[in-house]
Amino acid sequence: MVAIDSGATTGGTYEGVTFQADKYSDGGMTSSTQDEIAGTTADTLFKTERYGNYSYKIPVTTGTFTIKLFMAEIFNTAAGARSFNVSVEGRAVLSNLDLFSQAGHDGAFEYVVENVRVTDGTLDITLQSIVDNATLAGFAIYSADGRLDTSRPEPEPEPSNCNGYVAITYDDGPTGNTGNFVNALKSANLVPVTFFVNGSAIGNNRNAIQQMLQVGEVQSHSFNHVDMGNYSSAQVTDQLSRDIQAIQNAGAPKPTIFRPPYGTLNATIRQAASALGLYAITWDVDSQDWNGASVQNIVSAAGRLQNGQVILMHENQNNSLQAIPQIAANLKSRGLCPGRISPTTGRAVAP
Ligand code: ZN
């Protein structure tokens, strides 16, 4: 009767059911993975999610409904890393759900709720986070006697509150701290961000790159994190092409932006990067996190960001992790939103 692909911007037909793009949500944020999903042929449905503490409010006529819930653990890779509750029309239907324990990482999980009587005009599906975020990949509702109430107006999309965009960037990953950064960024809704990564640090840690992609873009920071000030064009090309390959091998799109280690940038480096399709940038604001800046100093540095500017931070600096909630609040108070970096201008732009 009605099926919604949570977190999706377009609809599609999966396993014979036509799903619409995400709508009827009240709160929550969206994310996605590029990984394949096990246990289903409807991978596209499970690859996007809406997460957080939120509800779906579906306008329906009075009737008795069956609700099929679709979920996947597209982020965490261990049991106990996520736990949440789901209720329908105020009735608890799933409690302390740990998707990893149910279906593993990137595994499809489906749950059917039957005999849901709706008499108040709105079918409520409510998600409550306990550990990490509650998540839903989609849902389908069916009824013999009820139907979607199309007499009520469709919900209006929320207006943008962004007066401008800034680029939040983290260098030197992936590290053992990637998951903590990604969780903190999600919790603070400080997304998207840009990670400048070193191919030598990726190793077999494909999962860290996949986690980064859930909150932003993965771009190049050279393979070995070397100062290339005295490098020949061929040496620069070697560093960058190996980094591009490592990033793509980890399942990320081909990078389009390069930030040189130590900010060392000259004509040789610029031209070699450009020949590989990489726009070389440094930063507008240096948080000084690498130099022992306190959480408050890092927050203050982010407070100087103006529309279009880029701030330098690092994924191996715990103070930058701790600064995330305050940076998010500060930007919001100034009407600035996180953006992506344009590969033609190097400026922060709308995602
Ligand atoms: Zn670096």
Q: Give the uncertain stretches in residue-range form.
A: none
- The CATH architecture of the largest domain is Alpha-Beta Barrel
Report, as a whole number of angstroms, the end-to-end distance.
Answer: 33 Å
Q: What is the 3D shape?
A: elongated
**Helix content, binned percent:** 10-25%
**Main sheet record:** 6 strands, mixed
Number of strands: 24
Task: Estimate nothing, just give the exact number of structural domains.
Answer: 2
Overall mean pLDDT? 94
Strand order within the widest beta sheet: 2-3-1-14-8-11
- Which topology of the largest domain does CATH recognise? TIM Barrel
CATH class of the largest domain: Alpha Beta
Percent strand: 25-35%
Reconstruct the topology from this structure.
Layout: E1 2-5, E2 12-14, E3 17-21, E4 25-26, E5 29-32, H1 43-47, E6 48-51, E7 54-59, E8 63-72, E9 83-88, E10 91-97, H2 99-103, E11 108-118, E12 122-131, E13 135-136, E14 138-143, E15 164-173, H3 178-187, E16 193-197, H4 199-202, H5 206-213, E17 216-220, H6 233-249, E18 257-258, H7 267-275, E19 279-280, E20 285-286, H8 295-302, E21 310-314, H9 318-322, H10 324-333, E22 336-338, E23 340-341, E24 348-349
Parallel strand pairs: 1-3, 15-16, 15-21, 15-22, 16-17, 18-19, 20-21
Antiparallel strand pairs: 1-14, 2-3, 4-7, 5-6, 6-13, 7-12, 8-11, 8-14, 9-10, 9-12, 23-24
